[in-house]
Amino acid sequence: MGQLGNRSYILVPTPSAVFSDFTMIRDDVLNCLRKASL
């Protein structure tokens, strides 16, 4: 079931999934910037 879910996610990525991925990446970048500034 997990493999089918991943496969469908790759073939047809939903806008919400893509948005959540970008949000996670943005949070990681912000955290890195905060650590670098400290």
From TrEMBL:
Protein name: Uncharacterized protein
Source organism phylogeny: Bacteria, Pseudomonadati, Pseudomonadota, Alphaproteobacteria, Rickettsiales
